[in-house]
Amino acid sequence: MDGVRTVRAFTLLAVIAIIAGGWMSQGVNTSSIEDDSLGPLISDESFTEQDHSADIAPESNNEGDSEIEISTGLIAGGMTAIGSLAIGSFFFEVMRVTVLIALVTPWLAQIKKNRDDMLTRGRILGYLEANAGIHFSALRDALGLANGVTAYHLHMLEAQGEIISWRDGKLRRYAVTKLSNEELGRIRNPIAGTRLAILEVLSTSGHLGLNGKQIQKKLAISRQLLSHHLSELRNQELVEATTNGRRPNWRLSENGIETLKISVQISRAEANT
Questions:
Q1: Contact criterion met (CB below 8 Å) for 124 and 143
Q2: Total count of domains within the chain
Q3: Nearest in space to 159 (alpha carbons), one of 111, 123, 109, 114
Q4: What is the pLDDT of residues 107-128, one digit of tens each?
């Protein structure tokens, strides 16, 4: 992923800045100590040389101050860059996953592969087959894995073509690659909130369906809000009219039944973590 390479380059530059700043600071301190040690060696008889060096001293001090400012700026800039990554990882799951893959994965990749790795990946694959579309944190908590371990194995499985992932707002979701395009389309766009509630109500109404007033009464929502959501669900071909007229009965379409099943599955899996 491009984000992984960006994080690695960003972190490398930050570390280089900190090291360079520390090295410059140490050099300035060493130079200052050497200058102080030369003071007692100057004899009282060399007033002319002292007067001449006194004219040069201010220039030397200015150079030292400049080097201190640069070294301090490098260290502060590097620490700020690393701190911004840490803060971003704390608030945004997408960034946390990217940072973990970029910084933790290379270290874990050096660990010798063993039977535990294969078992962990098998657990992840099995869970994703049963809970396609689940996001990173919910998967991690459900399997009881650490952040770095989860990110490492998901990255390896994706590199091997076993799973796919996509961004969903602040989250990153995962699924196995053997899903059909139709199934993947439903998983990428799960129904939630009021629309999910409408589908759940209609799922118990049978082939005859329910009219708007009946749905409105069950969900205790306004007629305008119900009309808006029904219109969107119909445009997505998730519900269909069972009668003609201005106020028809509504029921789930075949696509709606499958979408409801997947949406409820994702919602319950994430609610249990």
A1: yes
A2: 3
A3: 109
A4: 776 665 667 788 899 999 999 9
The pair phi, psi for residue 117, each rounded to 5°, is -60, -45
Q: Which residues pair with 251 in a beta bridge?
A: 240
Q: Which two tokens stand for residue 150?
A: 């989860």
Mean pLDDT of the chain: 81
Strands (E), 33-148: none
Buried b (16+ CB within 10 A) or exposed e, 246-270: eeebbbbbebbeebbebbbbbeebb
Sign of CA dihedral 179, 184, 188, 191: negative
Residue-wise pLDDT tens digits, 137-181: 999 999 999 999 999 999 999 999 999 999 888 889 999 999 888
Q: Where residue 229 sits, what CATH number does that domain have? A: 1.10.10.10
Residue 42 pLDDT greater than 90, yes or no:
no
- Mark residue 206 as left, alpha or beta (left: phi above 0; alpha: psi -120 to 50; beta: remaining): left
Last residue of a domain, one of 186, 210, 237: 186
Q: Which residues contact 192 (CB under 8 A, 6 or more apart)?
A: 263, 267
| Dihedral Cα 196, 202, 204, 210, nearest 10 deg | 150
Q: Are residues 113 and 131 in the same domain?
A: yes
- Is the CA virtual torsion 92, 94, 99, 104 positive or negative? positive
Residue 89 has pLDDT above 70, yes or no: yes
Residue 270 token pair: 């994430």
Q: Look up residue 1 and give its DSSP letter.
A: -
The b-or-e profile of 43-57 (16+ CB within 10 A means b, else e) is eeeeeeeeeeeeeee
* Backbone region of residue 169 per phi and psi (left: phi > 0; alpha: psi in -120 to 50; beta: other values): left
